[in-house]
Design a protein that fits this description.
single chain; alpha/beta; Rossmann fold; 2 domains; 5-stranded mixed beta sheet; about 20% strand
């Protein structure tokens, strides 16, 4: 039996010495061969969206691609203006801006109307033009106080608002309405005089000069007029916030 076992081992040794390859020596797995995983889809960029739009692809299809991702869009004001020049529609541009924003809560439109905070979309900036009597300063103060969901920038003292550097521009007119006074009496009569104005403003989308919102106020103290106008702006924000934030 011992001799028989030695004879059985000889062919195996000969195969290993003659260099005849086997599956193990070539690193070939004897297990089932698995197909390689399919490659991940590359990121969509601004140039891809322009190509899709110019080729006549429907907005609904482009919006679906953006939603599926992955994406890496340039949503700077200059890039947004260029997208509009290249013929990309407003809903698609807004979807691109939203895709590059922090995660947004999926809330119904009623949640916005109830005064809940809305995240600031990347690239959606608002430049407030200079107005008579520093009324723009009162407006900016009220916007920050009431948390208007845009990034607010002041106009340049020499050149005003540059449409290429902001998503929106707010302009307005302010008319002085004279002085009013109030009387206070604690230990005597005290009169308080204050300037009153009447104001109207409009919000312009810089990509196409479209007026997306306008508001005004009756005669009143400057600060109160600014507060009233910003209140209107917040209540009507579904009309001017980019889609799909208002869905």
């Amino acid at each position: 039996m011992r001799h028989l076992a030695l004879l059985l081992l000889i062919p195996t040794a000969l195969f290993s010495q003659t260099g005849i390859p086997n599956q193990a020596s070539q690193g070939v797995s004897t297990n089932a061969v698995h197909a390689p995983e399919s490659g991940t889809r590359r990121e969509l960029m601004n140039t891809d969206i322009v190509k899709l739009s110019k080729s006549g692809i429907a907005d609904d299809t482009i919006l679906l691609l953006i939603k599926q991702g992955p994406v890496r869009f340039d949503t700077s004001p200059e890039a947004l203006v260029q997208l509009k020049t290249d013929g990309v529609s407003d809903p698609v541009i807004a979807a691109m801006v939203t895709a590059m924003s922090p995660a947004l809560p999926s809330e119904p439109a009623t949640a916005l109307q109830e005064g809940k905070k809305t995240p600031i979309p990347t690239g959606v900036t608002l430049c407030v033009a200079s107005m008579t009597g520093n009324f723009d300063g009162y407006l900016i103060g009220e916007m920050q106080k009431q948390r208007v969901p845009t990034a607010i920038i002041a106009s340049d003292a020499a050149h005003g608002c540059d449409p290429k550097k902001s998503f929106y521009t707010m302009t307005g007119s302010v008319e002085p309405e004279g002085k009013s006074f109030s009387a206070r009496s604690i230990f005597g009569l005290r009169l308080h005089y204050r300037d009153e104005v009447q104001a109207a403003v409009k919000l312009v989308r810089n990509s196409d000069s479209f007026i997306v919102w306008a508001g005004d106020s009756d005669r009143g103290e400057v600060k109160k007029v600014a507060e009233h106008i910003v209140n209107q702006m917040l209540k009507q924000r579904p009309s001017w916030l980019p889609m799909p934030l208002n869905r």
